[in-house]
Design a protein that fits this description.
The protein contains 4 helices and 24 strands. The chain is mostly beta strands.
Length: about 425
């Protein structure tokens, strides 16, 4: 018998009785925020400007402000909006949304893809009000037309305060704040429905994997539903209590990701510098292109938070994803017996940590285990199976590859 066959057969026999695997986890979006700048005087004023939300097509931006021309007093926030003809132009000066503002607090939450539906929060008792602060939506026929009569979002509002809604692009998931029973202060709740058409109500639950004893404020869900961002207690002491441990000074922004919309969100991480600073950062909203390179994060920032907040934007730059050869475990550029040995050593002997874990998943089943070594040995020496999907092929580490490849310096030709 060929010595290689003897070696491979012995290796297979040695591992058949063992069972150990390394599972993958959802990874945070890979990239950095840069070019953090306040929006111009068309949007920001000498007063308190915050709570930005942009339409999916990028042509509309709504904000809240207590500037003196509002319909209420300076202590009450009003809603403003700016519409532009194309994304290559800056937003013009915002206009007050006279048709929706009241004498109490009104602020925008979310704009639809086409900018024609606005979700907002108010404590004014519109028809259908359920309690204190409620979430409504209003539609306009075009950007030149006024918004119509407010309607409560079906299935969302309760007898307690509900506010700050954010929806996925398909309208099937809604994330919002609520003080309803089951909350520990201001918790994030998620509502789900099977159709965005008609008046189908959301079915809601507490987002327990994210919430803590602290207040989680103003959730923002990415268009694809895979990244969630929120802030510290916006309605509490902005520079004091009510904040998670590990922040940068004032209010901070936090986020978590998941591999699919059927999975729970993973580890919560502070957004970090340069977005979070010793000042207060709050109420963030993803642009709908997130997490594409060049997508925008809008957020509020203030130092004393005494009518001095402005709206900022940060540009997201994607870190190029590494490439790897599936089955090429030891990073020597070849798929051979040494790779199977490397996998076994990693699993059972405490050998060197691989530079690209995804490459060890020879059979592409989402886990590193003895099946990978067996499949690789069988492919190399026993002709079984005759082929493994992707084995020996150069791949980019995309969202479907969850085992990690961050430390690999080797690149291959796609």
């Amino acid at each position: 018998m060929n010595p290689k066959n003897l070696a491979s057969t012995a290796a297979v026999a040695a591992v058949m009785s063992l069972g150990l695997s390394v599972q993958g986890e959802a990874q945070e979006p890979a990239g950095t925020f840069t070019e953090i700048t306040p929006l111009g005087p068309e949007i920001n004023s000498p007063f308190h400007d915050h709570l930005p939300c942009a339409s999916g097509d990028g042509l509309s931006l709504a904000i809240a402000s207590d500037r003196a021309v509002g319909s209420g007093s300076r202590e009450a926030f009003d809603m403003y909006i700016a519409d532009r003809p194309d994304t290559g132009q800056p937003f013009p000066e915002v206009r007050i949304i006279e048709e929706l503002n009241t004498s109490t607090l009104d602020y925008p939450n979310f704009l639809s893809e086409d900018g024609l539906t606005l979700y907002f929060t108010t404590d004014f008792p519109h028809p259908g009000s359920s309690g204190s602060y409620d979430i409504y939506f209003s539609r306009r026929l075009s950007r030149e037309e006024p918004f119509g009569e407010p309607q409560p979002v079906p299935g969302i509002n309760s007898a307690d305060s509900d506010y700050a809604i954010s929806l996925t692009a398909d309208g099937l998931e809604a994330y919002f704040n609520s003080h309803r029973p089951g909350s520990r202060g201001a918790d994030i709740w998620v509502g789900r429905r099977s159709s965005a058409d008609g008046d189908e109500p959301f079915t809601v639950r507490n987002l327990q994997e994210v919430n803590t004893i602290f207040w989680e404020s103003a959730p923002s869900i990415s268009a694809d539903g895979l990244t969630l961002m929120w802030g510290d207690d916006f309605f509490g002491d902005s520079l004091g209590s009510g904040r998670r441990i590990g922040g940068h000074g004032g209010l901070d922004l936090w986020w978590a990701s998941r591999a699919s919309r059927q999975d729970p969100f993973g580890k919560t991480t502070n957004l970090g510098s340069p977005v979070n600073t010793i000042a207060a950062e709050f109420w963030a909203r993803f642009s709908p292109r997130w997490p594409e390179d060049g997508s925008i994060l809008y957020f509020g920032r203030c130092m004393t938070c005494n009518h001095d907040s402005d709206i900022y934007q940060a540009i997201w730059h994607v870190t190029p994803q590494p490439s790897f050869i599936r089955g090429e475990a030891n990073d020597d550029g070849k798929v051979d017996l040494s790779d199977a040995v490397f996998i076994l050593g990693f699993l059972f002997l405490g050998a060197t940590e691989p530079t690209c874990r995804e490459a060890l998943d020879a059979n592409d089943d989402g886990a590193i285990d003895i099946a990978d070594a067996i499949s690789l040995l069988g492919h190399l020496f026993l002709g079984s199976p005759p082929t493994l999907p992707g084995l020996g092929v150069c791949e980019t580490l995309d969202g479907s590859a969850t085992l990690g490849c961050e430390s690999s310096s080797r690149q291959c030709d796609i």
